[in-house]
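ok so for the tutorial part 2 we go from a plain amino acid sequence to predicted structure tokens. step 1 is just haveing the sequence, like this:
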Amino acid sequence: MPGATCVDCHLGDGAKAGKEGAHQGMVRPFLVGVGPRLKGQALPRETAGALKALVPRANDMESMIPEGDPAKFAAAGIKTIANIHWQDRDPKSFAFSPAVAEKTCGRCHAQEVKEYSSSEMGRLKHQRSYRSWSEQLPGPQNCGMWFGQNYDNLKGQTAVPYSEAQNAASDRSCNMCHPGCNDCHFKPHEGKGSHSFGLPDTASCYGGGRGSICHAGPMDRRRGAGYFRGDYSFPPNLPQDTHFKAGLQCTDCHKPVNHKFGHLGSDQARASCGNCHAGIVQALASSVHGKVDCTACHVTLVGAYQYTFWGPGMTFGVETPYGKHKEYYGTRDLPTIIKNADGRWIGVKPYPMAVLNQTRELAPTGLLFRAIPKREIPGNPAIGEPTLFEAVRGVREVNDAYIGVGTRNDLPSGNKAILWVQMDKMSHAIGKPRGCPTCHDSYAQVGKSQWSYFEKSDVKKAFKGSYTVVADRDGIRFTDQVWEQPEMAGARKVEDIAPFTLLPASAWDVKGIDFSLPYDKRKTDSARSELDAFLAGYKASGAEGKKIRSIAYHNLALAKAILKQR
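step 2 — the prediction. this is what the tokens look like for a chain of 566 residues:
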């Protein structure tokens, strides 16, 4: 960056001649060390022998995570390097530090740092609004409750011993995913030098070669509806989004305005389809499918979590009541289509979830979209945050939903378990559409999941399984559940990671919600015949022929009208 000095970005005292004095108060990238002594805690690069230049060491999702010197690991008390964080993070909590950003990036970009530090992303307003597993809104969710500045509250909800050290390990783990200025703008992953900066690109949004952090986590690893996919998808190499293959960047559709982005419930992001597909958007808007989201048809195979359970487990080598047993990686052949709060049909991936060892209960909720009632959230003044800040989210600002199934106490521990159906919006990977019969040949929707679970602290070897999800006028059901018997590791119990193997097969089934799709066989057959006849008789080729055919698939009457006018 022309004109910037070392001190501008790294602080310290440039007036001092000696190293000790000059480096006093200096900020720099740090590692995340995991082992007998460090439990996912900050470690200087030099201590681990990881001082090589920050350039990609490979061409994969972990290309920027240093390997270090194994000979130095024992002395440092670690077995592995889990990640590397840039200098605008707090080494204690791994959270983005507005105080450091103001002193560094803010020297030249004061307004931008101010905007970002108070934005939904910079302050994590939405995720930090999740405070209680038993709260109806925003509800229990896959990423869990927020652990930072929430220990006493969570301890009161937990039916087994729960320490501050356990809570702190989970807090660091959660903060791994959430970005600061450098996560978006520092770009050593490009291989153009270890001091390369610029506008965010898709690789930046996906963590810049540092594993499943930033959007690689919630999009590819959790939802299984990733844009990048490839090495980032679980299982790997699922089909990539057609727009990714065409070279579009995330910010081509999710335009940042004052560090605010168009995300899951965003009219702005959805309207961006019209920038390239104006004719199709117009055709769809005036058709019988005018309230069907593009992704409802154009997202098919999705991956990642097929179950998730919060129960006793390991986080950064710390045994905790809130281990996240998410490694049920697999595929769902088709999303389930539901109506959002605006009456628009969208695709979601319903799957069973639970949190164990609770003191409170959650009653059945029905289908809820994750609105956030207005609330004050505790900040962290030690890193430059306000003592309190406000968070709120309307029901029309989000397309993620859930169904609270209820609370059970019939697991072997005897403690309460809160069960729900997670229903994350599927926004990617956009590609060829699902076939018309998947929506129009029955009232019922059927999706098939298959998965494989392995986490070495839980099981001695991988075990596999599958189930079918049926959504219709009678509700939602998870049927045909089969699984291999897990061979547990150490003191881990089956209940901790796989409560579905111990509960009734109907434990996550929900009645009383109509998930049926509009179905009229005579009307559907007539529309298909009319479309097939038109396509068979339309002989034009080239770009114009392709355009008319595309419009016909979305609005046959409009395609005929266009041809009639010519």
